[in-house]
Each structure stands twice: as C-alpha cells, then as structure tokens.
Amino acid sequence: MSDKNIFTTNTGVPVDNDLNSVTAGSKGPTLVQDIHLIEKLAHFDRERIPDRVVHAKGAGAHGYFEVTHDVKKYTRAEFLSEVGKRTEVLVRFSLVSGEKGSADSERDPRGFSVKFYTEEGNYDFVGNNTPVFFIRDAMKFPDFIHSQKRNPSNNLKDADMFWDFLSLTPESIHQVTILFSDRGTPSGYRNIHGFSGHTFMWYNEKGDYCWVKTHIKTEQGIKNLTRDEAVALAGKDPDQATRDLYENIKQGNFPAWTVYIQVMTPSEAKSYRFDPFDITKVWPHADYPLQPIGRMVLNRNPENFFAEVEQAAFSPGNFVPGIGASPDRLLQGRLFSYHDTQRHRLGPNFQMLPSNMPKAAKENSYQRDGAMRFDKNGSGPNYWPNTFGGPAPDSSYTVPAIDISGMAARHAYELSDVDFVQADALYSKVMTDMDREHLIGNIVSHLNGAQKRIQLRQTALFYKVNAGYGERVAKGLELNLDDVKRLTSMSQEERVKATSGESKL
Ligand code: NDP
C-alpha cells in the first residue's frame, strides 16, 4: 500500500482522473464504461434525504449536563443519581414549521431537543422554547401543521389557512399569545429557554412516582427581535441564529442553561385546578415552584453537520429507567410519531447512526437485518425466549403501574373558559406595556392578511381572553367592536356558524 494520499472510489480503488469523463474520441460522446463518472453522478443524485416534516431547519452542538442537586427521591435515573455527575449531550435547536431554507428569524416556536448519552441508554428531552402547545390531541397535529405551512394550490404561506385553523381551535389561544409576543422571534438559540411542555412520570428505586415538568432556562438571558428587526434579518442574514451559536462556541463563549423541574404528586394531580396533562396549560410557579437540578453547557461544535446534526433523531419516547410517559394525549401521539418519521427519513436502522447510538451504554437487542444494517448484525440467537444465553429482560426495571380506566370512545376535551385563563395571566399580569404593544402589532400585521370573517372569529377569542386584548386587536384591524362582542358572547359552535361559508380558500 502506498503512503501517498490517493483519491479512491467508494470501493477504495485508486482514481486515475477526476476531471475528464471517458469519451469515444476527443469529440465523441461519454461511454457508460466510465463507472467512476456513473458512481459520482448517482451518489450526487441521492445526496438529499427527506426533510423533517416539522423542525426541518436546525442547528446543533455537543456539550454536557451536570447534576447540581440531589433528585434521587424523585427518580432512579442513573445519570441524575449524584451531584457533580456529568453526562454527554447533543442538542438540536430548530424552527418548527419552516423548511430547511427558512430564515432563522421567522416567527415560529423553536424546537429544543437534548440527547443525553447515559449509562442506561439514551434519554431524549424533546421540547420547545414555549411551555405550552397549540393543540392537546395528536389527532389535530397533521391538520395544524398543514395550516401553518403552504397552501397546496399555490404553494404560498396562507394567512387564511393559518388563522382559520387557529380560530377553530380555541385551546391554541395561550400558545398563540406567546408566539405573537416577541418570544416568537428570539434573537438566537443561545437566548431561549427549553420546556418539556408535557408532563412526564419520574419514579424512584422504590417505585414511588411523581409528575414532572422540566424547564431549561437560558443563562444568557432571553433576547428577542422586534417584528421589524426579524424581517430585516431574514433578508440580511437568514442563518443568523445558526451562525450565532456556532461562532460563540468556536470562540469559547460556551452557552449554558440551568435545568429545573416542577413536581406534582399523583394525589395532587387528581384535584389540581388545571388538568396537569393538558399541554395547553402551565403549572403556575406559585403552585409548583421551579426546583434546580442541573446545568447544561454546550462546548463543542459539530465537525460535520450532516453526520452529527442532520442525522440526529430525537424522540420523546426515548426514556431511561426513572423517567416515563404520562397520560398526556399529545405526548401519546408523539411517542409513536417521532420514531416513525425517523424510520421514513433515515431508515429502520437509524438508531445505529453515530449520533443516535448509545455512547455510554451498549445496545444488546434481538433486532436484526433491515436496510443499511452496517454493523455485525448482532450475534447469538435472534429470538426471545431462548436457552442459548441471549440477553434477558430484567424485571427490576419495571415502570410503576398507574390506574387508568374508562369507556373507550373519542372523548373530546371539553372547551371551557379555563382555556382562556392562562393566556389572560400572561397578557395582563406578566407582560409589560411594551410587550403588549408589540404583541398587538405582531398579531395585527399577520391576521390582517386573512379574510374578514376569520379575523372576526379570531379576535373574539382574544376578547374572551381579555376585553382590552380583543379591543386593541379589533382596533388595529379596523373591525367593528360590536361585531366582535356579539361573537364573543356566542358558543364556539355558534361563532363558527356565524363566520363560515361565504368564501372559498
Ligand atoms: P410567573 O410570574 O411566576 O412567571 C411568568 C413566566 O412567564 C416567567 O417564566 C417568564 O419567563 C415568562 N414570560 C414572560 N414573558 C413571556 C412571554 N412573552 N411569553 C412566554 N412567557 C413569558 O407566573 P405564573 O407561573 O403564574 O404564570 C403566568 C403566565 O406566565 C402563564 O399563564 C404563562 O402564560 C406564562 N409562563 C408560565 C410558565 C410556568 O411554567 N408557570 C412558564 C413560562 C411562561 P422568564 O422567567 O424567562 O422571564
């Protein structure tokens, strides 16, 4: 073998020339026998993998999580078992509804996913920069995303679709209020929080469990763009958030987050004033204070974006012992959908890709074969039970049982005035005058693009949150306030009837 740095084909064969195709004579056509050319073109033709259907554009970095407080009474998770313990993490931040080429400053929630490479296997935190979500039943998810993306007839983003769906989905109002505040246009990924949104089960060695929400709060401080700044930046530097993360890590200015939990006992959950498994609601801090548990630092950029970030596959279903699912209906849908979409995007063996395989634990399963199985494909028996020394399940890892009963039916979440209470708390108690001014301006400039009847239906929802909120949006849109008030006094069903049917999409 030569020491020379010789360019080879993918099969390791030396390449003699990579500038000229083999042709029949100096003026003649290319010959199919130029396998190197054919391989080169064929691979190029297949370089793109499907975009994520949501969260297509993202940026990522490596780092670590360190435990700062003892949480052993809540969870048996080994990676949380000792103060000072560090676990390697991979984080991917993203836009939600934008495509891969979207501008980083677009109004959109931001995805905030963390893969913890623990000694008990990989645990994924798959959250957003907002503590709540637009819907609470996975049945609505594809429709919600369709409405936020492009009109299938003209391939344009469409304010009618956007607001038609949201105004027909009043439980979205809390998240809409957050999205249209300046937190909907964060200045970069270093300046956002991450929220689990969902409630999860944490359980300890004894099998005692509690319900937990996780908050990952930026130590860089929240920083947002105004509407005008976000629009300008989309033209000037559409990759600004990606660049900001990369450059800061490169310069040794490592971003960090403090990790907190809120903890609710199962008996409290039975009588709490909000449904603790409804992702359109937070647990107010006064009821459930944040308890610090750790700190996360990002200190290493990817060396190859495709290998380390694009191929990273996160799922809220990647649990480790000590952390499990809750009855949250949207979570239940996500537990299926995340792995499913990765099988489509990356293939059935996506868990074996370097970013997704366990690093501190070892995979030891009965899964074999499948497209792109590129390791030794396991050894020993490929079925369980067996008497040939194959790996055996260990019942000491049993997840605590929870009592669930009821009639199997399509139970609707009953829409009630409780769905407006937390958006009101945000609007009237948390926001400053300037926050409210920006919120109204952001809503008006976007809702303005929708049909009048849809504007009225949505503005009635803002009015239901808070009369001042509704009045200011109505004023900005030049709507007749009496019409808004009339719609507000109706049930959602009547309101929809009164604002439907006159024009087509
Ligand atoms: P608190 O006053 O204790 O907390 C208010 C929270 O709101 C803070 O976490 C603050 O984040 C956050 N906040 C400030 N401005 C915005 C914004 N434009 N969009 C989203 N969040 C914002 O109040 P409560 O816990 O009683 O909650 C009141 C309301 O605050 C909720 O209805 C909800 O809308 C919002 N909120 C509550 C959270 C919770 O888990 N309880 C989490 C986030 C928001 P920061 O500390 O970074 O300034």
Describe the structure.
By secondary structure, the chain is an alpha+beta fold. It folds into 3 domains: 1-47, Cytochrome C Oxidase, Chain J, CATH 4.10.91.20; 58-161 and 184-352, Catalase HpII,  Chain A, domain 1; 420-498, no CATH class. The protein is built from 15 helices and 10 strands. Strands 1, 2, 3, 4, 5, 6, 7, 8, 9 and 10 form a 10-stranded antiparallel β-sheet that branches. Strand 3 and strand 4 (121-128) form a beta hairpin. It starts with 34 loop residues before the first helix and ends in a 7-residue tail after the last helix. NADPH dihydro-nicotinamide-adenine-dinucleotide phosphate is lined by residues 131, 178, 181, 183, 193, 222, 282-286, 422, 425-426, 430-431, 435.
* Overall residue-averaged pLDDT value: 96
Radius of gyration: 26 Å
Fourth CATH level, the homologous superfamily of the largest domain: Catalase core domain
Count the strands? 10
Beta-strand residue fraction = 5-15%
The arrangement of helices and strands along the chain is: HEEEEHHHEEEHHEHEHEHHHHHHH
- What ranges have pLDDT less than 50 throughout 5 or more consecutive residues? none
Give the helix/strand class. alpha+beta
The largest pleated sheet is described as:
10 strands, antiparallel
Q: Architecture of the largest domain, according to CATH?
A: Beta Barrel
Query: Regarding CATH, which class of the largest domain?
Result: Mainly Beta
**Ions, cofactors and other bound molecules:** NADPH dihydro-nicotinamide-adenine-dinucleotide phosphate
Silhouette: globular
Helix share, percent: 25-40%
CATH topology of the largest domain: Catalase HpII,  Chain A, domain 1
Q: Count every helix, treating DSSP H or I runs of 4 or more residues as helices.
A: 15
Number of self-contained structural domains: 3
Distance between the termini: 67 Å
